[in-house]
Amino acid sequence: MMTTAEGGDARRGGPTYDHARTAAGDPADESTDVASGGPVGDGAGEGADAGQVIARYLDHVDGERGLARNSVLAYRRDLRRYQEHLSGRGIRSLGAVGEAQIAQFAITLRTGDESHPPLAAASVARMLVAVRSLHRYAAREGDVSADVAGLVRPAAPPRRPPRALTVDQVTALILQAGAATGEDQTGLARRLRSAALLELLYGTGARISEAVGLDLDDLDLDESVVRLRGKGGRGRVVPLGRYAVIALERYLRGGRPLLVAGVGDAGPAVFVSRRGTRLSRQSAWSALRAAADAAGVTGASPHVLRHSFAAHLLDRGADVRVVQELLGHASVSTTQIYTLTNTDLTTMDHLREVYTSSHPRAVPCPCPGTTATVTAPAVTRLPVPAPVGERPIGDGDPIGAGDRDGARSPEAGA
User: Fold this and answer.
1) CATH classification of 2-153 is 1.10.150.130, yes or no?
2) 250-262: pLDDT as tens digits
3) Which residues, including other chains, have CB under 8 Å from residue 291's CB and lie 6 or more apart?
4) Which fold has domain 167-297?
5) Which residues, if any, are the signal sequence (predicted)?
6) Catalytic-role residue among 21, 231, 250, 274
7) pTM of the entire structure?
């Protein structure tokens, strides 16, 4: 993590600045220090109060940009941490912040302090996205004279394939979700609800917030489709598989009526609690965790089911653009991370099958466990002059037979 202005100082932890004075000791230099990222003057600085700007910015992303509720909550947490960092150093105005202060904030996040543990690189990058967006907004609104965060770049976290379960693990998870939990009516309803929820999550790649936010009008089981409302208010229509349709029909006919019995106005929610209210994300999480514990599957979560949905589709030849549409990704680059090699899901047999069925010049050979045989086209081999001291390569010799005693055949040198 470094800034353009500071070079290697950010990597070494950056210098400690005294905000009560300037680097040159001349108050006349204060106006230029903010723009250059150097030491700033009085912590109060010029410009609007940081807390007021943050409040207006959060209203902006919630109302005008229409970000999802969870995204707004994440921005609020991240910017509260940023404001606490600035206040602890006597800075009350965004106009008194330079590149050096933002870089120091990133270093503090990575190393931790007396009140917070160190954060992973991905978490630091996420917080810096919120900080950069705040300063860009403040500059556009005229609260500060320049966007000093524009040149502060978070370190790119390593790209790793998202964790995904195998098909057998997903099957075991869903079977356990639908397993009997008791003979009482509530137990039956919760079992049907859990099975329908997990089938929906895995069958559509829905986010947990999209699943619990479903209304009855979003389902069309006759046409086997569901309308999901994603981030930023973006909606998409996703096909429903046969297993998901059956599980949802069973729940809507035999489970949901039991949960809303005695409730005057149950509302439009598809997934409801035993009190008839919309199921919360935490309750949905608990249902999945209970099924995972019973099935002995570790690392399962709603988002891992979403990862599994995408990985299994791509593993079976689905086009990445189609998977992008199904997941509701704004950019295909987000979806392409699923194309990274996942050794838990890709086997040599599968690689051989895809290669031989897709490459125009591939010639399948009889492989263990298969009966199909494809005859390779005949190849006419021209006589090859033998090097001095070597016998000619005959038709019965394997390729590379001329490599004996350290000599290389003409074919090997090609």
Assistant:
1) yes
2) 999 999 999 988 7
3) 173, 174, 176, 177, 194, 198, 300
4) hpI Integrase; Chain A (1.10.443)
5) none
6) 231
7) 0.55
